Queue: 2 jobs
Job 1
Amino acid sequence: MTAAPDITDRTTTGPAAAGAGPAVRAAVAAVVDPEIRVVTIADLGILRDVTTDPATGRVTVTITPTYTGCPAMDVIRADIRRALTAAGHPEAEVRTVFAPPWSTDWITAEGRAKLAAAGIAPPGPVRTAGPVAVPLAVRCPRCGAPDTEQISRFGSTACKALWRCRSCREPFDHVKAL
Amino acid sequence: MKPTVDHVLAIADDALITAQRLGEWYAAAPEMEEDVALANIALDQLGAARLLLTYAGELEGAGRDEDALAFLRDDREFRNCLLVELPDADFAVTIVKLLFLSAWQLPLYAALAEGDDERLAAIGAKARKESAYHLDHSSQWTIRLGDGTEESHRRVQAAVDELWPYAHELFAADPAAPVDPAGLRDAWLSTVEGVLAEATLRRPADGWGPAGGRTGVHTEHLSYLLAEMQVLHRAHPGATW
């Protein structure tokens, strides 16, 4: 498992930032993923950092995409700006970084629970060896049965695959381990 | 040492033209799941292309962004290999093209991820994970078609025979590149030969290899592809939605 990203507010000094840190961070962390609306960008590990310049009070948010071509990134950037404007920081900067690359191991325990509750099977741990995937057992998020099968390796968004439960026959989305 | 603009454009254009070709399958693939799969792979390729084109524009220093490079260059300025621009006349051709390309992109991105250039290392580390899925998907289809019916075997073997010569261009030596493509051939052969064997397909003999893409000398197919890809941006400069 890769270490989860640090999303703590690094502001420690400076009058401009005093008291604003946790509120700003909370406002950004509450931004909902536009494609999977049951989880926030913090739950998914997309949110990497929120800093406040102690001198100017200017907020900088750092995010990373799940997939390079994720079409939701523009909406996420706009939603972060909207949240920060509402929190009193209209001049905030949103940076996008690609290294280290996002991993499904960064999805928080709370995020996994929210996904499962919404009928989306959360990812297993990331495989480390070999270019060819070994299918792992995926539990049905509806009935909990382990007897499931993959219908398509690619699903409704870049980060999901389409599966079906052989027990209750329900099709469901599964977030692919990456 | 910074990579050359031409080198970054080469790997960017491979991804961009692949994305455009794969997009042609949307709503026309053999099954609905494959529509979704090929569109997802196209999106990954487009994502990598955008990052690489942006970087190429910065290295060039002439103020061209990803859109200017994608939509306002003519065919002679594109640096993609010929393999990716060939028309996808048959689903088997699409699959074999993707197999050949992803078996090359995966070790390339992996090597870039370990390299000295920070930007290429970040892009490589990101793209290699997606590339592994592309290789897996094209491998599974190659095996299914090759070891399938007489007709599917015949058509995928024809695709392998037709495309094999074009794969040579991927390994043209470029000692100035951060990762010399010539050094990727062993890894590529080992992957592709393994898949072909499992698919009961014959590995063609090495011989003639058409080239020219890396220096801007393309087949006529690229011009038609670019006409379709660029028409909107050229007709309505700066259009967004």
Job 2
Amino acid sequence: MSVALTVDPSRERPHGRLFWALADSGNVTRRYLTHFLRQPVTIAWQLGFPIISVLLYGFVFGEAMKVPGGGDDGDYKQFLMPGMFVMTMAFGFMNTAMAVVTDASKGVIDRFRSMPMAPSAVASGRGVADLVVACAELTILAATALAIGWRSSGGLLDTALAFALLLLLRFSLIWVGVYLGLVVPTPEAAGGLYAVAFPLTMISSVFVAPSLMPDWLAPVAAWNPVSSTGTAARELFGNPGAGGGTWVEQHAVLMAVVWPLAISLVFLPLAVRRFKALSR
Amino acid sequence: MNGDGFAVRAEGLRKRYGDKDALDGFDLRVEQGTVHGLLGPNGAGKTTAVRILSTLVRLDSGHAEVAGADVVREPALVRARIGLTGQYAAVDEILTGRQNLEMFGRLFHLGARRAALRARELLEQFHLEDAAEKGAGQYSGGMRRRLDLAASMILAPGVLFLDEPTTGLDPRSRLEVWDTVRDLVARGTTVLLTTQYLEEADRLASRVTVIDRGRAIADDTPDGLKNTVGGSHLDVVVRETADLPAAVRAVRRVCAGEPLVVDVERRVQAAVTDRVRALTDMARTLQDEGVAVEDIGLRRPSLDDVFLRLTGQTSGTAAAPGTTAVPDEKEVAA
């Protein structure tokens, strides 16, 4: 009855290591995307949160908030939407961290490590899945934003570039998530990361322009990587409140590329080192 | 594979965590096609040994070959020839049983078609067909463990590591897992089984290594280990703790073996050779001394006895609370 399955390492040689690294990564991605098919409620929650945020902040704060240089009623909504996009991307590292720590604490990562698969696929497969989910999130957010009156007055190219920058930020946070997922001991402890995620997004240009903040807080908010991506998106979408007096605000598009690269340069090696430390 | 008939061969394994030696010159030989038990108290180094042999952890020094490949120089080869079932059922709880096995099959590089075929086979072999389309999170503990074992068996590994496979399972699930393990060995797999349950090693293993403080302190068949303690035990439970010293004196007079005292149970044990005479002599001696006896009897030794005896003697810190090995002029040859 049983097919004799013995391993013949030479069978793998025709394809080489890169092929298997990609194939393994694809299979890990498939695993996570199957999760959403198995549990549609999970993705409904995950995508529902930004929609509710858009409606909540848009309508509750919408009338009361001021935008520097803006005047009309609808300005805050125009200002806020790119902020919501970037906040959703920023919070994404929590999902990555949670998936990694769950696998680590349940022995799934050990199982992967005891198998003849490419070790890099554990993280890269999750990363690709995260980017697929991020695309879905941005699509739904943009649709919701359009429905309540947000518009991009930038050209097609600028609009596409803005979304690319949002995804670039999400990409860099994959490595932060993988690293933190390997550092925190349990999924329960990972829940505490909200205490990091929340100020990270609040002390930024997501909800309020830094120029309206106290003098000591304004530079912190302006130099927040989340702000750079948010401000760059506003600039490219042609939404109000993009400007600001400081150098970092004036070079938002540049910084929206520099910050994610810097974050990746720091956290990718950290994550790799942490992963290798598992065999210590 | 090397032709000497050993599926696992470890020599002088050392692993240090901080200032603690998890393994301190650990040796192990596991014969091909057998179940080999690795017994030891918590923290003795069982899991560290398994993690080194399954390439999850690097060793500090020593040498280990698993299924004919060196764990340090040829980890990829080792990984292609082993299965590992750790202390947790390491399956994806959201995916179905079938999806789990197909995913692991693809990650074992079987290709989609063969992975699906192998998943179907394993679901049948591990009696999981009915639950194949259910999420693994809904499985019972025993079913999840069987799925975990099935995932370890995708490539029909030469060596399967089972790290406490029945910890936390109810008795019925435990029997199911034991049946599965026996079945796997009948198909030619070598199993290294770590366990805290001596009964488990007794039932499954043809050979047992006892590990304590990172070293192998005994290696024998379960029967051989029991014989080191003696053929049978005389077991006396006194009514009053104050009578324990008198009972120990009586046991010394009558029995050949060194007495083992379990204070909290008011119990004295010793190996005997002439079973019936020891029992009658003992009853008479205790009566003469005026010791009130709650229970007296002859017991065949269990692996528990062996375990307590071995770890109690070598480590000083007894494996079970309230156990003291009484020093005696007559040393038992272990």
